[in-house]
Amino acid sequence: MVKFGLQFKATLENITNVRPEGEDFRWFLKLKCGNCGEVSDKWQYITLMDSMPLKGGRGSASMVQKCKLCSRENSIDILKDTITPYNAEDSDKFKTIVQFECRGLEPVDFQPQAGFAAKGAESGTPFPEINLQEGDWNEYDEKISESVGIYEVTHQFIKC
């Protein structure tokens, strides 16, 4: 099994503690079969709440799937203890925000969507329900009378 880290990078304006919110947060991924190289054409999501048994009673994973091309059973699991917020001091730098334990799969793309949360860097104002699908998000923080935002969202995967 191989671990892959999802590294997140964004420009933060007056905001910190950008993180996925809740155990039902959906990590939208495109996955590649390690056996035949087939890449899923559709976005697939996994959550911490999902748990499927592995073949042969070897535990469970967030997702277990059979490759459409080679029929090999593969799995991916979210490592809950590796979920880390992206903070103001991380702005404009890649930081690993989650790790996935993969058996026969490799994540090749990530699509941030709804379900992120953050707080004002100076004010502490909570900002729930942040959607990063467009790659940018901004709001107005009344406590400091300034705009807050998350811009130029990008990502990469690394082997851990």
TrEMBL record:
Work out whether the entry's keyword set contains Metal-binding: yes
**Which controlled-vocabulary keywords does the entry list?**
Metal-binding, Zinc
Q: Which GO terms describe its molecular function?
A: zinc ion binding
Top-level taxon of origin: Eukaryota
| Pfam families tied to this protein | CXXC_Zn-b_euk
The stretch of residues making up the signal peptide is none
Q: Which family does it belong to?
A: Belongs to the UPF0587 family.
Name of the molecule in the record: CXXC motif containing zinc binding protein
Q: Source taxonomy lineage?
A: Eukaryota, Metazoa, Chordata, Craniata, Vertebrata
